Amino acid sequence: MERLKKAQYIGSMNDLSPVHSDIPPNDWVNRQLPPWARPYARLMRLDRPAGTWLLLLPCLWSVTLAGGRIPAFWFMILFGLGAVVMRGAGCIINDIYDRRFDREIERTKTRPLASGQIGIGHAAVLLAVLLCIGFIILLFFNRFTFWLGVASLPLVFMYPLAKRYIWFPQLVLGLAFNWGALMGWSAVRGSLDWPALCLYIAGIFWTLGYDTIYAHQDKRDDALIGVKSLALKLGEKSQFWVAGFYDGVWIFLALAGYIAGAGRGFYLLLIAAIIHAAWQVFGWRMDDPANCLQRFQSNRDFGLIVWAACLAGRLF
Description:
mainly alpha
């Protein structure tokens, strides 16, 4: 019966809209970088900054909520640089693991490693350079935050493997992508407190939501090649579950603000974030890849609204 249901679900995806390459045509990489540098920029996803924002924003929430009326801008700069570097490193690790899968998926088959524009050796050298830069950035933090950052590395390497063995790789991604919520707090306070843990859990729920939306772009190809994801596991119930994930986001964000003593402005802007999340979920067409990508990318705006809430909670 389970096999029959899965076959019916895969069959129902035959009418999906075509998915094109996720490499933007004629973007700034093509216009401004020399030809030799373009594949490396694309390997780091410098042409698609949405993922960098999603890695950075939990850091900004935490730094802001942990600070006083004057935000710790120096730490924000460090986390901004770290987000670019570590997101690039994570993408290289992912593409090394997934290069054979990527060749079979319409959206990803033109990526530098999958298409052969870059060899694994060159990708490994770039990865080593980025990890060294990330290590140098960690040296600017206190000792507790330094070791907390080092402790995140196993998660960075685990995510690409998770999709081969479990139906919820989004959870592993959430554990890795929101680690900055812990580091941001420890950078300011030198320790971990309950608000940081609440922000971390809120970020994990957020990732479960937005990456399930993102995974629906590839569900047809993933089903054929055997890659697992919540998009395939939840199927037609995905919208209900994503709504539930976003409920978890605002509940734990509100709890973080309450424990941290945030002002009224925090809760007013948190309502705006909830409205944005509702717009995402109820306007999401899970069988339309373009709509999935648009809703996924809009999570940068959701995260910025939450950051504004943290700022308002501290300033007023």
